[in-house]
Amino acid sequence: EPDAAPSGRLSGRTVVITAGGTREPLDPVRYLGNRSSGKQGIALALEAAAQGAEVTLITGIIDAELPPELPGNLTRQSVETAHQLQQAVLGAAEHADMLIMAAAVADFRPAEYAQAKIKKSEGGENPVITLERNPDILADLVRRRNSSGRGPGVIVGFAAETGDEGTDPLDLAQQKLLRKGCELLVFNRVGEDLVFGQDQTEVHILASFGAQGVLGEAEPVHVTGSKQEAASAVVARAAQ
Ligand code: CTP
Ligand code: CA
């Protein structure tokens, strides 16, 4: 049981956690963003620090409070865009034992950044925003690690899915776990009023085939409760 975990089970370990959403600028005053609050990622970072790990918390845009005094074994770095997040993760994860990607990374960014504020002109055409793909930080890192043998032994992804008619979001999460190649994937169902910014959450922690061998259990862990409770279950599972 996560609650029975001895404190300090991550002492001597280095953990990198990303939290919040990225923001992709369009012009000096506008951006593309998302509704991630960062609450879950912050809870994970505090939990890993409480378990004795040396933690780097990389935050994008967050809409949640960090404690005024961070634990001495937790360092925070702030970024804005997916590119900046990637650079920060690559730097921090090289010597880390564990990476937890709780950040909501923008899949696309505006293909062009306008140096001056985009103006509307009377009778002009409506502007069209062309997007281009951002790197997949998580999948790239798994690939690098698997080919070089260096990097975090435990990589945890997140998947927020709404599902749609005829698609079970849990199935989408299982497919995503295979696609990403990480050891664990934390799935939560999202909707306009579900999960984003809330204190309560419901998560399923799915393990890859390889991780299942280590964990010795095939059943995904299911937690309904506070983001703190979810964080403690995720960190306990990852520590295993
Ligand atoms: N992620 C990432 N880099 C991206 C997009 C996502 O590292 N450019 C990470 C997220 O931090 C998360 C996991 O990948 O841990 C899954 O993100 P998600 O958006 O659910 O997956 P995608 O592969 O982007 O698929 P989708 O088309 O469903 O958005
Ligand atoms: Ca995505």
Automatic annotation (TrEMBL):
Q: What's the catalysed reaction?
A: (R)-4'-phosphopantothenate + L-cysteine + CTP = N-[(R)-4-phosphopantothenoyl]-L-cysteine + CMP + diphosphate + H(+); N-[(R)-4-phosphopantothenoyl]-L-cysteine + H(+) = (R)-4'-phosphopantetheine + CO2
- Boundaries of each DNA/pantothenate metabolism flavoprotein C-terminal domain copy? 10-239
Residues engaged in binding CTP: D107, K117, P135, D136, I137, L138, F158, K176, K180
| Annotated EC | 4.1.1.36, 6.3.2.5
Q: Which UniProt keywords apply?
A: Decarboxylase, Flavoprotein, FMN, Ligase, Lyase, Magnesium, Metal-binding, Multifunctional enzyme
Give the pathway. Cofactor biosynthesis; coenzyme A biosynthesis; CoA from (R)-pantothenate: step 3/5; Cofactor biosynthesis; coenzyme A biosynthesis; CoA from (R)-pantothenate: step 2/5
From which domain of life does this come?
A: Bacteria
CC cofactor note = Binds 1 FMN per subunit.
Q: Name one GO molecular function term.
A: phosphopantothenate--cysteine ligase activity
State its cofactor.
FMN; Mg(2+)
Write out the ranges of the annotated region (Phosphopantothenate--cysteine ligase).
15-240
The record's comment on protein family reads: In the C-terminal section; belongs to the PPC synthetase family.
Relate the protein's function as given in its record: Catalyzes two steps in the biosynthesis of coenzyme A. In the first step cysteine is conjugated to 4'-phosphopantothenate to form 4-phosphopantothenoylcysteine, in the latter compound is decarboxylated to form 4'-phosphopantotheine. Catalyzes two sequential steps in the biosynthesis of coenzyme A. In the first step cysteine is conjugated to 4'-phosphopantothenate to form 4-phosphopantothenoylcysteine. In the second step the latter compound is decarboxylated to form 4'-phosphopantotheine.
* Protein name as annotated: Coenzyme A biosynthesis bifunctional protein CoaBC
Q: Write down the species.
A: Nesterenkonia lacusekhoensis
Q: What is the lineage of its organism?
A: Bacteria, Bacillati, Actinomycetota, Actinomycetes, Micrococcales
What is the gene called? Answer: coaBC
Which stretch of the full sequence is covered here? 186 to 425 of 433
